[in-house]
Amino acid sequence: MLNMADGVARLEALAASPVIDTLAQAFAAAGHELAVVGGPVRDALLGRVTHDLDLTTDASPDEILRIVTPVSSTQWDIGRAFGTIGARVRGEQVEITTYRADSYDGVTRKPTVEFGDTLEGDLVRRDFTVNAMALRVPSRQLVDPTGGVEDLVAGVLRTPVDAAVSFGDDPLRMLRAARFAAQLGFEVDPLTVAAMAQLRDTLAIVSPERVQAELVRLLGSPDPVRGIRLLVDTGLMELIVPEIPALRLEVDEHHHHKDVYEHSLTVLRQAIELDEARHPGAEPDVTLRLAALLHDIGKPATRRLEPGGAVTFHHHDVKGARLARKRLKALRFDSATTDSVTQLIEQHLRFFGYAEGAWTDSAVRRYVRDAGAELERLHILTRADVTTRNKRKAARLAGAYDDIERRIDELAAQEQLDAMRPELDGNQIQQILGIGPGREVGEAYRFLLDLRLDEGVVGPELAEQRLRAWWTARNPAV
Length: 478
Fold this sequence. Notes:
53% of the residues lie in helices and 8% in strands. It is α+β, with helices and mostly antiparallel strands. The longest helix has 25 residues, at 391-415.
């Protein structure tokens, strides 16, 4: 519940902070208005920590730069075309933007930038009422022309003007509705939800990079499932990651299996809980969350209805990895994230054979080698993938994974498993076999790596003997 007395006190503290006070005095001395706007005001009222300081002014970008230069250690004008000047003031990063009135022309993927004349006009053009509040400084006057405080109290997301107009100005705001719902735990106004469904096709004019950035912010929120449901229910997810709504498989009256869509959302939620428990205080792991959300997207394409009511999804891990790679590339995700997510999806079923019977040390080593740098994420994803209501089965799987993690730790301590290299390097292989660089050295290296995986550390002398025996068997005429 929003406590207005506490909120007002926090606004006072925000205005009195050294960085805001310094800027307020500088702009007032230059004869220009200045106001803290959007997220910092909203978060101060809610008692949330804010990481960004956004301000707005009637000054032009050139005038902003002239005013902030004497009171800042660094300035940057990469956003000048959009009216934004950045600076570092008293050790904090701030962005100051000229009053604006952006809009899309309905054809291109970039907004047309128009500068406004008044603070109230700037606020009305913003995405949601809770973000359309400002704190004038140095006068410390709260400006709320669209009822943002009332919506904060009610926990509602609503556009300052008609939702169709707002989303027409910037279709990306429809994704922001889902992100803020997940971030703040708010409900979205029904008329706003209806406009999202009606105008979803206009998202096509927004660049993939902007869509991806908003999706990342959503996944990094405290409750991304809330936002994902909204995007699926309004049809927007069909345009972003259509593989997610495709998880809502049609139910066949003679064949029964768990709801893949609901299962995926549960896995995402459980992965977040496990990650936070293992890494308290760490930044949200968006890569892990992507993998959890997408881990079963190969199921619709691989579902087979078998006689007797059985349902199979053979090789959905491999199919899902391919689909995920294609989708993440389309959304312009970087190659490192794409590679990590697809690897996790492809390997997320590897563990389940372990629960049927303990692996040999060789199998455990291969599991670690194949997971590589993604081992910790694979631990979490695999555990999160257990959503059965059968308590006995869940306990058995959890116990099995406890066991494999224990064995991995023991082997790592015994053999420095994370290094996972043969006991002879490429130069030694060439010297022992009397060969030069080439394909045969690579084959010999893989033989020795398999030896290490299968038998652990055997020592360089025995490794050389086994290598010579392998070479002789491979080349009997030598």
